Amino acid sequence: MIPYGRQHITADDEAAVLAVLRSDCITQGPAVPRFEQALAARVGAAHGVAVCNATAGLHIACLALGLGPGDRLWTSPNTFVASANCGLSCGATVDFVDIDPLSLNISVPALAAKLQAAEASGTLPKVVVPVHFAGQSCDMQAIHALARRYGFRIIEDASHAVGGSYLGQPVGNCRFSDLTVFSFHPVKIITTAEGGMVMTNDATLAARLARLRSHGITRDPACMDTVPEGPWVYEQVELGLNYRLTDLQAALGWSQLAQLDQSVARRHQIARHYDSALAGLPLVTPWQSPDAQSALHLYPVQVDPARSPLNRRQLFDGLRSAGIGVNVHYIPVHTQPHYRRLGFAPGQFPAAEAYYAQALSLPMFPTLTNAQQGAVIAALRQLLR
Q: DSSP states of 309-356 as a string?
């Protein structure tokens, strides 16, 4: 089975992890700040705070911004559930903004219209979470302009987008946001097995993120309520969690950064071949923004129901039977049972639902061979002839 995505681990990666295993610190040691500093420098952010996964990163990003009961968080329905769950986990109310059918990201006109209506009704969001679906950056400059007008904070869910760029600068530099969250799951651009990182240019937010990922505890005398009796003293100054990344994982992530540019370049090579080879088939291939370079975490196509002899389910089953591990990203969050119980229903966000109904993610990872990609293309041609 050719998977839709997979990790690529090099001998250098193995050596980096082994070096930590042989060291005195396999967690809470120097490998974590080394990784944080390296990625922050790579994307042009002032601070990086490593966490155990991107879901944890989204959660403490919301907490750091003070999101809580009585507040509202808006995000895209075309995403994994974590982009919305982070708001619910803080006690906030969650809502969605439909997507643009071309970019598959949050629609700026839809966001603007919803904000205007919310201002009139006194229901503006405190936080908006734009999701860079498949690695393609949202129109962050336009979203930032709306944030200045309506007063909300921005958390970029860039789980798919490390290595991507927007307006010629790396995704993650937080030029148009308060915080950006990356994921390092094995199918992402770089991996720490499980892991994530929150980027910010705000030193106060960075300090709070670091505290929240470690039980809300501080050893900084300046942040304590009392003068410490000795150097062993720590204080829990707020309710936090254990969202720490281990040094083993950080060493792997730090090593993987060396192949980031090569990985993204190879993904673009694969995408260009898909674009040309699939041009005559009844499929809609991914749109590329002229203002951004996608990290191409995914290569999602859509079945054209007006031209295709097969529907999405038939094509999915046919490809799986041929040993092609296609997948579907994503089931719109508002249609999940938990969100239906909160009052959401199918039909509320038609663009996201229309995309989902026809979507398939084809194999996309740097070590996908030409022969494997040829097999994917041949299977598609055979099934859609």
A: SS-HHHHHHHHHHTTEE-B-----GGGSHHHHHTT--TTSSHHHHHHH
As annotated, the residues of the chain forming the CATH 3.40.640.10 domain(s) are 2-259
Q: What is the pLDDT of residues 40-63, one digit of tens each?
A: 999 999 999 999 999 999 999 999
Q: Which residues contact 269 (CB under 8 A, 6 or more apart)?
A: none
188 in catalytic set? yes
Task: Write down the pTM of the prediction.
Answer: 0.98
Q: For residues 298 and 271, what is the distance between their CA atoms, to the nearest angstrom?
A: 10
Question: Any idea which architecture 260-384 has in CATH?
Answer: Alpha-Beta Complex (3.90)
Residue 197 CA to residue 57 CA, distance in Å, equals: 6
The three-point CA angle 142-44-74 to 5° equals: 35
In the chain, residues under CATH classification 3.90.1150.10 are: 260-384
Residue 133 has what DSSP assignment? G
The CATH code that applies to domain 2-259 is 3.40.640.10
Cβ atoms of 42 and 260 closer than 8 Å: yes
For residue range 293-351, list pLDDT tens digits in order: 999 999 999 999 999 999 999 999 999 999 999 999 999 999 999 999 999 999 999 99
- Joined tokens for residue 101: 């059918």
Among 47, 114, 188, 334, the one annotated catalytic = 188
